[in-house]
Amino acid sequence: MNKGIISLLIVVLGMVFGTNLWSASIQRAEYGQQLAEMQFAVPEDQQARDYLGLKGKGDVFKIPEIDAQVVIVEIFSMYCPHCQKQAPALNKLFTSINNQSALKGKVKIVGMGVGNSAFEVGIFKKQYAIPFPLIPDGKQAIVNTLSGVVTPWFIGYRLNKDGSYNVFYSKPGGFSNEKEFLATMLELSGLPEGGDQ
C-alpha cells in the first residue's frame, strides 16, 4: 500500500478516535450535572436520613441537598460483579472518612442502584454490610437519562453553601486503595484534609 495512503488513514483514524474520546470525556462530565438535577426518593431508614442530613420535609431530594461539603456518588447495580467486588473497598473508604474528625460529616458517600428496587438494594446492602445509604432507582431514571453509563461509576461533587455545586470527578471503574482514592477526592475537590474551607 502507498505510504501516502497509509499516512492519510492514520490521520483520519486519529481524528475519528480522538473526537470520540473527547466527546466521551465531555459526556462523562455531564453525567454529574444531570444526576445532580434528578430527584430520588428520601430513604425510609431514619439512620440514612440523618446521615444525609436532608432538611426538607418532602419525599424526594437532589444530591446538592445533602448536608456535606463533598459527596461521592457510586452508580452501581446489585447484579454488577464489579460493584460486588468494589464493596469492601468502599466500606473501608467510609470507615476511613468517619475515623477522621476533620472529615466526618463533611465528606459523605451515597450509592445509586441503577434499575434496582428498594428490595434489591436492601439485599445488596445486607450482603456486603454497606454502612452508607443506597438509593434505589427502580424506574431506571439514571439509565434513561445518562445514556452509556456503566457500573460502577463514581462522581464527586463539591457542594457550596449557596446551594450550587461543582462536579470535580466523573469516571467509570473502581479503586483498590481507599486511602489513595480519598486523597484524590480531597485534592480534586479542593477540600483540605483539615476539612475546612
Name of the level-1 CATH class: Alpha Beta
Order of helices and strands: HEHEEHEHEHEEH
Label the CATH architecture: 3-Layer(aba) Sandwich
**CATH overall fold name:** Glutaredoxin
Q: What fraction of residues sit in β-strands?
A: 15-25%
Unreliable residue stretches = 5-27
Tertiary shape:
globular
Q: CA-to-CA gap between the ends?
A: 61 Å
Number of strands: 7
Measured as a percent range, the helix fraction is 40-55%
Q: What's the structural domain tally?
A: 1
Tally of helical segments: 6
The major beta sheet can be summarized as: 5 strands, mixed
The strands making up the biggest β-sheet line up spatially as 5-4-3-6-7
In a few lines, what is going on in this structure?
The chain is α/β, with parallel strands linked by helices and 197 residues long. Helices cover 44% and strands 19% of the residues. Helix 3 (81-98) packs across helix 6.
Can you describe this structure?
The radius of gyration is 19 Å and the shape is globular. It has a single domain, classed as Glutaredoxin, CATH 3.40.30.10. The chain is 44% helix and 19% strand. It has helices at residues 3-37, 46-52, 81-98, 118-127, 141-145, 178-189, and strands at residues 40-41, 60-61, 70-76, 107-114, 134-137, 153-159, 165-172. 32% of the residues are buried. The N and C termini lie far apart (61 Å). By secondary structure, it is α/β, with parallel strands linked by helices. The strands form two sheets. A five-stranded mixed sheet has the order 5-4-3-6-7, with helices on both faces. A two-stranded antiparallel ribbon has the order 1-2. Mean pLDDT is 85; it is low at 5-27. Helix 3 links the parallel strand 3 (70-76) and strand 4 (107-114). It has six helices and seven strands.
